[in-house]
Amino acid sequence: MSEPWNCLPLPLADDVAASWASVFPEGLPDWLLDDASVSEEVIAQAVARSLFLRQTLERHPEQVCALLQSRVLSEPTTPDYLQARWGESLADVTDEPSLHAALRRFRRETQFRIIWRDLLRWADLEETMAATSAFAEVCIQGALDWLHEAACEQYGTPWGKDPVSGEEVPQSLVVIGMGKLGGRELNVSSDIDLIFAFPGKGETRGSGRSLDNQQFFIRLGQRLIQALDQITADGFVFRVDMRLRPYGQSGALALSFAALETYYQDQGRDWERYAMVKSRVVAGDMKAGQVLMESLRPFVYRRYIDFSAFESLRSMKAMIGREVRRQGLENNIKLGSGGIREIEFVVQAFQLIRGGRDRELQQRELLIILKELEVLELLPPQVINELREAYVFLRNLEHVLQGMEDKQTQLLPENDLARARIALIMGFDDWHSCQQELARHRENVATHFANIIASEEDDSSAQSSLDEGWCELWLAEVDEASDTQWLEKHGYEDPAASLRLLRSLRDSRTVQTMQTQGRKRLNQFMPVLLEALTEVDKPSETLSRVLQLVEAILRRTAYMVLLLENPGARAQLVSLCSESPWIARQLAETPLLLDELLNAESLYSPPARDELQDDLRQQMLRISYDDLENQMESLRHFKKAHTLRVAASELKGTLPLMKVSDYLTWIAEVVLDHVVDVAFANLVARHGYPGQAEGVSRGTDFAIIGYGKLGGIELGYTSDLDLVFIHTADPALATDGDKPIDNAVFYTRLGQRIVHILNAQTPSGQLYEVDMRLRPSGNSGLLVSTLQAFEKYQRNDAWTWEHQALARARGVAGSTEAISAFETVRHNILCQSRDKDKLRHEVVEMREKMRSTLGTPESKQEETFHIKHDAGGIVDMEFMVQYLMLAWCELHPELTQWSDNIRQMEELGRAGVLPVSDAEKLREAYIALRSSIHRRALQNLNSQVAGGAFVDERVYIRSVWQKVMAV
């Protein structure tokens, strides 16, 4: 008899032959062949197709045996079967660890059945998705049932009003499944997106100490997540993602129905409408859950045909493109061009736009919605068929990629063995044939995606009216004298220099070695760019700046296509580079920022703080906290993109100085908040939560205090961050995880991780430069202090200059409770009684030291004025304000409410400490000097100006200094 693997193509036959002896050293066991649908040939096919199936047979034969005895593999995996099988698993559950173990054994067994049937093509796509989704629901419900009962024994049963009858009844958690789980379209190796809700307010009954309903359900939700997500010796069940809940990672883990309704009504974003399209109650109180879902329906589906959704859909399209370019995802069959996400996006776009009127579209399964789109004649039958075929092909391929190793991935592999497996499973003779079919489907999807969600500029042609002279110039088809004359005629102020730059680019090795397609795009783009430069004042100077970007994208010519197809973005590029070499450099260093130029309205209208937070949350939703590299890259892009929008707005004049600093500060605050969340989550996953005193609820108990420009809400484009870290936990307690450490060690590591995320140099550069020297005892002090230690240091050991710095300090990220506690300490320290003469002497002495080391030497003061450090400059004003704050807060405690110089000046005037006229004039002078620094930063210039600049302001500032600070 021939070996069962002889029918397999190389290299799979060799792979199976080599592994056969290790998996079945004594031949196939009888129990494996008792299933009539299983034979040696079938088993050879299975182990050839999946390392996961092979390893499970080798390492856990007893589980496979039990699986076959419960139901043969030729039978489909139904919800009833899964429920019954889980019921049998419950027999071994006596406590929480045994629940975890039972869930993980149940997963291994069920995954084996689902992946076997899928990869051997015994099940079609719809069965695989339905079985995986049903399996998730059984796990969630099974774990929830056990944990709810255990929680009620510990805390009592939660009671509250029934959402329908209004009567007092026991309450249960409602688990809402989002995304593919909500749509019953789960992958064979997927995470699950959940939202936790409960009917209403109330307290637990039946225990010695009652607990608020929300706290009960938050604790229950935490235990449910651990039961499913925590990695143990038996593995895990599902990765659980809770970031789609209201307020994302910073929001409460469980919210009442009323709180959910209020959030979506008042603050719900377009992307949350998009996410809620597939939402469905998957576990818990199903009846109450349906009441909740009905109440949220108006948020998702408008009563009218919602054409206003097109703009937000275009923004989502742009976001998809940015993500693909940022992460290099073209080989990702979900996120890349023509991938699964684009099909989902097309279908859900129709649901958002027309679902309010056409209720047939208010369903969740994509394939069902495609049928409805055909019935409603919203898309031609050919488009529907091509999208359906592509979806089935891509989802089957996705399951192949994941089922081979039970690994969550959508990336096509690079190695030949994995490619051979894919071709075999997908029914192709070789990888090349499979790849051709994949390319056909992706091309169809990309075409329909572009046609349906078209942007306004997509149909424009960049070269339709281009004068041929620009092409001849770039390609050097005429003599140099004619080229010079052409540039001069079109306004280039230094044509000879421009020609030298163009010649240098053309002759560069990078251009000479470009592929044919890339060279073609460059030859299309350069003439268009050269013509666009005629719209600015100094085309030659601007060309030298823009060419930095061109050189940066020579190997990534998709950006040239972006600029060719979007004349608006091209115009913004030329305009901004003309006005600011700093912006030109930012774009050259991070070409992905070109995406920000696509929408002029948003480019010159940076978002407010809550919108910034929402934007960051949306961008980070699909990046695991464990994936620190991607987290860091995405944060850097977020910061650069929004800083560009602020700079563009300042140049255009749509943002005054005060707002510029506000926005730059908000960007930093939002980033810091997220960095704290990421770093804290990483440490909690390893060591558990910091220990708490009895009766104290879990929290980070950690705060970042911003000093200097961050604390004073005065950040500039290149400012570093002066930070101090504090925590309010008991350092003597330990964390509650499997690898406990002292709280003090936990928070030190938290601080170290935060500094690393901010400071580290990645391919996208540094997020922020961090200065920690203002912490107690400076560089020799602890990285993270308890609040008590911080207060003791400030009272007993701090220098006067440290109290000056405290005047500009405020909590910027972390626990609201810890920040509030810090603000109380700050207020008390600033309001201490002080000897005004001694204080004045110390402040003046410190100012003189700074001026002598950082200011302009006396011999050059007629030629140069340093806006910050010279007499009559910004630091003089800051020192005056800080002195007055420290001297008068005892009598006027209201002075401590602000940390920024402008409002401190205004408050000093209102309190009568400083004449109102002086306060107003100082404020105007301060704004004028800071405005100059901002403008010069955008020109890559330092803070030194001509000696004759700001004469009136300097004279006035020095006169006030003499009145206030004369010793």
TrEMBL record:
Top EC class of this enzyme: transferase
Occurrences of domain PII-uridylyltransferase/Glutamine-synthetase adenylyltransferase (ranges): 314-452, 861-935
Cofactor(s) essential for the protein: Mg(2+)
UniProtKB keywords: ATP-binding, Ligase, Magnesium, Multifunctional enzyme, Nucleotide-binding, Nucleotidyltransferase, Transferase
Record EC number: 2.7.7.89, 2.7.7.42
Residue span(s) of domain Glutamate-ammonia ligase adenylyltransferase repeated: 43-290, 571-823
GO MF, one example: [glutamate-ammonia-ligase] adenylyltransferase activity
Signal sequence bounds: none
Annotated stretches, region: Adenylyl removase: 1-457
Catalytic activity: [glutamine synthetase]-O(4)-(5'-adenylyl)-L-tyrosine + phosphate = [glutamine synthetase]-L-tyrosine + ADP; [glutamine synthetase]-L-tyrosine + ATP = [glutamine synthetase]-O(4)-(5'-adenylyl)-L-tyrosine + diphosphate
Ranges for region Adenylyl transferase: 467-967
Function, as annotated: Involved in the regulation of glutamine synthetase GlnA, a key enzyme in the process to assimilate ammonia. When cellular nitrogen levels are high, the C-terminal adenylyl transferase (AT) inactivates GlnA by covalent transfer of an adenylyl group from ATP to specific tyrosine residue of GlnA, thus reducing its activity. Conversely, when nitrogen levels are low, the N-terminal adenylyl removase (AR) activates GlnA by removing the adenylyl group by phosphorolysis, increasing its activity.
Family: Belongs to the GlnE family.
UniProt xrefs under PANTHER family: BIFUNCTIONAL GLUTAMINE SYNTHETASE ADENYLYLTRANSFERASE_ADENYLYL-REMOVING ENZYME, GLUTAMINE SYNTHETASE ADENYLYLTRANSFERASE
Name by which UniProt lists this protein: Bifunctional glutamine synthetase adenylyltransferase/adenylyl-removing enzyme
Organism: Marinobacter salexigens
